[in-house]
Amino acid sequence: MVESSHLRDTRSGYDAIALPYDATFRAELADSPLDRAMLAGFAELVTGRHPDGRLVEVGSGPGHVTAHLHGLGLEIRGVDLSPAMVELARREHPGITFDAGEMGALDASDGSLAGLVAWYSIIHVPPARLPAVFTEFHRVLVDGGLLLLGFQVGDDVLHFDEAFGHQVSLDFHRLEPATVTALLDEAGFEVIAQLVRAPAPASAATKIPQASLIARKRP
């Protein structure tokens, strides 16, 4: 099977910038109380419904969010497209499992996960491919399982040919919450919480609104 160009470009791009990316965004959660609130609410919802359930973060990068959720008591592992990111996450968080993988074809059996997190990783998925990705998320979650998404708000695409002094080809697809909600509904989810916040002044991220959604898999 021929690999999609967006997967190849995203993997090679993050392989190239893994170390400076980690250094730049290491403190993002510490500087964003609203993001931490959504993560904490998600963790409490999961443990309340599935106290012994397993979770996966897809697009886990250097493992910051995976480690934060692990610290909140969740049995979670990380999956990332970039082997360099996986290696970095394993080194920085040796008590957590991280593996290379692709969010559209997860190494998890049907209905095996209590929760799934895609924190600023669906932004690298072309919109036409999002329905298939959300269908895959639906497949691996138990009935009533919970999904947490984080993404940049908008309807445009930001393209980078260079990042942190390295040549890359990375696309960042901004998404409107209403569009994501409609796609999740079609995939068998209901959105139970939504936050749209202004860009954090101290953040190194692009200064546009940011959104996070919690959705539940319908039986």
Low-pLDDT parts are none
- Secondary structural class: alpha/beta
CATH topology: Rossmann fold
Strand content is 25-35%
Q: Between the first and last Cα atoms, what is the distance in angstroms?
A: 33 Å
The Cα radius of gyration reads 16 Å
Main sheet specs: 7 strands, mixed
Helical fraction: 25-40%
What's the number of domains? Answer: 1
DSSP summary: helix tally: 6
CATH class: Alpha Beta
Give me the secondary-structure topology.
Layout: H1 5-25, H2 33-49, E1 54-58, H3 64-71, E2 75-80, H4 83-92, E3 98-100, E4 113-119, H5 130-140, E5 141-152, E6 157-163, E7 166-173, H6 177-187, E8 189-197, E9 210-217
Parallel strand pairs: 1-2, 1-4, 2-3, 4-5
Antiparallel strand pairs: 5-9, 6-7, 8-9
Description:
The protein is α/β, with parallel strands linked by helices. It has 6 helices and 9 strands. A 7-stranded mixed sheet has the order 3-2-1-4-5-9-8, with helices on both faces. It has a two-stranded antiparallel sheet with strand order 6-7. Helix 4 links the parallel strand 2 and strand 3. Helix 1 runs parallel beside helix 4 and helix 5 packs across helix 6. The termini are far apart.
Attribute tags:
219 residues, alpha/beta, Rossmann fold, seven-stranded mixed β-sheet, two-stranded antiparallel ribbon, 6 helices, 9 strands, 36% helix, globular
Short structural summary:
The chain has six helices and nine strands, in the order ααβαβαββαβββαββ.
